[in-house]
Amino acid sequence: MRLALWWSGRALSSAATLLGVSILIFAAVRMMPGGFAETILGPFATPEQKAELAARYGLDQPVFMQYWHWLTAVAGGDLGTSMISREPVSLELLARLPVTAELTILSVAAAILLGVPLGVLTAVRARPDGGAAVGRLLSGLGVSVPEFVLGSLAVFLFSRYALGLSVGGYVPVTVDPAANLRSMVLPAAVLSIFAISATARTTRDAVLGVLVEPYVTAAVARGESPWFIITRHILRNAAAPVVTLTATITAYLLGGALVVEYVFNLPGIGSYVVQAVGRRDYAVVQAGVLLAAAVFIVMNVLVDLMVGTLDPRLGVTAKGRRA
Amino acid sequence: MRHPWLACSLTALAVITTACAPGATAPTAAAPEAEPGYAASADGALPAGGTLNLQVHVDTGAASGLDPQLADVASSWQVMSLVYETLVTVGPDFTVQPLLAESWETPSPTTYVFKLRDDVVFSNGRRMTADDVVGSLKRLLDSKSVWRGQLGPVKSVTKSGEHGVKITLDTPYTPFLSALANVPAAVLPMKEVRDGSVDPAVKMVGTGPFTVEDHRQDVSWSFRKNAKYWAPGKPALDAVNITVAPEETARIAGLQNGGASLATLGNVDSAGMLAGAANVEVVTQATTDFYYLMLNTKAASSKFADPRVRQAINMAMDRGQIADVAVGGQGKPTGATPAGLPGACDPARLPSATGGPEGAKKLLAAAGVRDLSFTLSIYSTEPAPAVAQVIQQNLQQAGIKVNIEQMDEASWAGKVYGKAPATFDAALSWFAGYADPGMVAKWWNPDVAGFNSGFMKSDKELNELIDAANTVPSGAGRTEALAKVCAKADTDAQMIPLVTRPATIGYRSDALSPSLYATEGYGNALRLIADTRAKAVR
């Protein structure tokens, strides 16, 4: 019963969030300076051509009507039609999804595989020495340097000096898996720098918090091996904030992919949305933002479920926890 | 470039890192010397075959889809020229040459009779007929295409025998052949267009050297050799793959690492950034495209209603400095007829050429204007910001304050073309200069160029001069008539031409032997794509 209530509550709050996002993005794209007609049709377009374009996409109707038509279409699974390509937006999003998904998965994998061990290492060896300071400095830099700076440096350096990884020239994994990996490693590395640093910092803080718990002291006193203590006692109890961060980072990386895909010329959802913003292709921008919001919501739900699994006290069915 | 913050950062980083790069990294494959009129000449001794991997900054992007007759930007013309062909084409130094028309005659100044090639087939296998040519031109004339205005006073288009087409004009129109040489005047498979089996907005079926295999909007194009192409031995290439790479640094990277065998470059500094890169050649095409300044005389409280104020601004600008500083010395000062075109006017002889800042101050004083300041709206694509900065500094010397308002292209387009009357003070843009000096001059008539009517008033005398210049046959008389157009446009000064806009093209000399004209009027770096040859796989 409690679980059913939780699910219905999350469903309602998710729907309300998506509705709010839909209103905001719908209004925002229409408030952007510069008209779609001048951008899409170009300066040579006549007033008749502009009117024809507006009529074709229902943009000559009152805004409330436009919103209603769009909302009902989205609810039915129709994300609209691109004014540039004249193709359904959903098809293009699907076609581009593998690129963005691969980029994000590689980055998240790097964040977990490198960030967590790094965080544990700096926590269990936390001493006021130079190594810890260097670690904090590097993770601070990783968090604060924007992707476009790292990305453009990587683009230049790796293309100029033939350092082994290819820049641009995306190859689908279905065509050549090895070439695909070569073209994706560098963008994923750039995108994951922030995630690795953030994961390492969060893991370190969480581990430091757990290290002072009596059960860790007891385990040490029992003579259990450091590996056993870290994997069975520390990591499990320090996992909640790291899992939460990983989920947040996954959603963040989707945002970072906007820039990285653009800089590395990867045909993913991010570059699609960036180009659509520049060209005032309303349906694409609206669909892209709504999709990102949906991903955020789904990730948050997954986090709640995973945290509950890791620590039943924090679970969705735990007593005293609100749905 | 639609992200100014990103563009600035990337360019700055690239410049910084280039400064630290070694002077030369590896031996470079020698490019053959180009023939006169060419920036690069393909090595005909190379075997046919191979693939051209091209990277461009923007895709065809019109809501009208892929219909060549409605394409109004050079980036679309370039891609569409792989598939579509016209009756005539532009050769070296803007000469008009036969293409689908084997030859033509002009029995009178208002009559053109074209003899069509009889061996041309569309990529669907059907032979091109005179009906296709007549139907295509009539379709263009009946359309809302901006190119309709460039075709001039066409009275009729009729068949002339089995392989001939006769076009009659109301009055002589000198740019007619040049106007026929651009993609919007391409020959379409009209039988299929009429019966609905081909919709040119979504499917490209032409007589050109390549056929479309795949297109993903804003991502890529794949073209394959048109096996039925009429020219023997052409195209030499088997395939052309186009990747749309909006970021200049990505295209530069593509050239450096071999991902691109040819790339169009937009930044005048890109050649410097590629200096020393192994096997990368960078050539500059002198185009007839040019930057111009718009002064809005139609705004309710326009600061430019008095022509003396506009003339003062015109006088205070140093076109030579703009060319040297903002366009890296690769552009040329120009009048309303693009510099470099035969018969174009000499910008040094324009009325505004001699006044300088002091002359501008006198004009402003005569107009009773003190402390003139205005906002110059520009888009963020280089070198527009650099051009604007030079203008700002030039005008400062005449006591005029310019506030530069930089925005993304969509915002800029909305501000400049979104309302009539327009609300901006001044704006910067560029025109394609085409292949005849009288063509772009027509845009100074807002009654013909409706897109300019939001900010400029029609000037009867100027309009008559433009029309008159386009009826005079090429030669000394036309040069004189065009000089009058330039002088009048210069004193009218609602649109002030500045400097030409060069095109920069990079290619891998170890992968490609391209043919490129030294000059171009329609922004089409791929005009000689059928001649271009690939080298052995590296």
Describe this structure in words.
The complex is a heterodimer of chains A (323) and B (538). Chain A has a single domain, classed as Orthogonal Bundle (MetI-like fold), CATH 1.10.3720.10. Helix content of chain A is 76%, strand content 0%. Chain A is built from twelve helices and no strands. The longest helix of chain A has 38 residues, at 226-263. Chain A is globular. With 323 residues, chain A is mainly α. Chain B contains 15 helices and 23 strands. In chain B, the strands form six sheets. In chain B, strands 9-10-11-2-12-19-13-22 form an eight-stranded mixed sheet, with helices on one face. In chain B, a hairpin with a 3-residue loop joins β9 and β10 (220-225). Chain B starts with a helix and ends with a strand. The chains are: A mainly alpha (323), B alpha+beta (538). Chains A and B meet through α2, α3, α7, α10 and α11 of A and α1, α6 and α12 of B.
Using the 3D structure, state the CATH architecture of the largest domain in chain B. Answer: Roll
The helix content of chain A is: over 70%
- What overall form of chain B do the CA principal axes indicate? globular
Main sheet attributes: strand count, strand direction, barrel closure of chain A: none
Biggest β-sheet strands, sense, barrel of chain B? 8 strands, mixed
Query: What is the domain tally of chain B?
Result: 3
What fold name stands as the CATH topology of the largest domain in chain B? Dipeptide-binding Protein, domain 3
Uncertain residue ranges of chain B: 1-29
Number of strands of chain A: 0
Looking at the chains present, what oligomeric state does this protein adopt? Answer: heterodimer
State Rg of chain A.
Answer: 24 Å
Indicate the structural class of chain A.
Answer: mainly alpha
What is the count of distinct domains of chain A? 1
* CATH fold topology of chain A: MetI-like fold
CATH superfamily of chain A: MetI-like
Question: Counting H and I runs of at least 4 residues, what is the number of helices of chain B?
Answer: 15
